[in-house]
Amino acid sequence: MKKKKVLFISQEITPYLEESELSNAGRFLPQGIQEAGKEIRTFMPKFGCINERRNQLHEVIRLSGMNLIINDTDHPLIIKVGSIQPARMQVYFIDSEDFFNRKGTTHCHETKKHCHGWMTSLVPLYIKTSYSKDPIFENSKVVYSIYNNNFDKTLNQNFADKAMMDGISDEHVADYKKTSFVDINKAAMNLSDAVVMGCEKIHPELEDYFNTIDKPKLNYHDAESFVQAHSEFYDEILESVLQD
Predict the structure, then answer these.
(1) Which of 38, 99, 135, 216 is the 20 to 30 Å CA partner of 72?
(2) Which residues contact 195 (CB under 8 A, 6 or more apart)?
(3) With contact defined as beta carbons under 8 Å apart, do 199 and 147 qualify?
(4) pLDDT along the chain (244 residues), means of 10
């Protein structure tokens, strides 16, 4: 029987960025799911603070050369790969001089790096719209995790407009018109097939929304049961693909 496949898209992964609850999840969850018998791939941004030589990153020629189009401007993307040897796991890096060529992560200056899960919030939108007919994604299920990494300010007011691609309508991005931390997470939750509480404590408004949303959910699990709970949850979600 073919292995079940899980693609992880993470804002941060240790040891490439400093340890946090999110970076540890990005590091140890894929390893645990791989050891449980599933085929995994892991992606994250290649921020400028990640040393390519020290981490032995190299370009994946066959995957590079794609362009990201925002406001009718092409932004070349380069894909690089590194290995976490103890885990026998590869990590693919999305590199772009236009977006990630800076020493910080979510800020342009050297501070404590809080890498926010909300930066993956557009993935459910794209998989459910622009890429819904792509053979790679047409039978995919999207799981979105919420973390306690709040920010006070709002994103650019044109955030939803910049997210537009072929196959996306104004109706699709309606939930992304409001750009606070809470609103962006809610938008991603609405478009996902399942939702995970990644931290024991999250924003109270998001916790209330999580408790009321009508779709498969996984509550917070500590390190002792973290991998097993996720693996069983993935099996439940993937089983629903076969039933659809």
Answers:
(1) 135
(2) 143, 144, 145, 146, 189, 210, 213, 215, 216, 217, 218
(3) yes
(4) 85 89 91 93 89 90 74 77 92 78 49 52 91 85 89 86 86 91 94 93 94 95 92 87 58
My answer on whether 60 and 94 are in the same domain is yes
Q: Which domain holds residue 185?
A: 116-244
The structure's pTM equals: 0.82
Query: What DSSP line would sit under 145-156, residue for residue?
Result: EE-S---SSPPP
Compute the distance between CA of residue 38 and CA of residue 4 in angstroms, rounded to an integer: 5
Residues 204 and 237 in one domain: yes
Note whether 110 and 74 are same-domain residues: yes
Residues 6+ apart with CB under 8 A from 15: 27, 84
Residue 35: what are its φ and ψ, rounded to 5°? -65, -20
Q: For position 129, what pLDDT does the model report?
A: 92
Q: Is 20 helix (H, G, I), strand (E, B) or coil?
A: coil
Last-in-domain residue among 114, 145, 172: 114
Q: Indicate if 7 and 69 belong to the same structural domain.
A: yes
Phi, psi of 230, rounded to the nearest 5 degrees: -65, -40
Report how many domains make up the chain.
2
CA separation, residue 240 to residues 140, 141, 193, 216 (Å): 10, 9, 10, 11
Query: What's the pLDDT at 243?
Result: 58
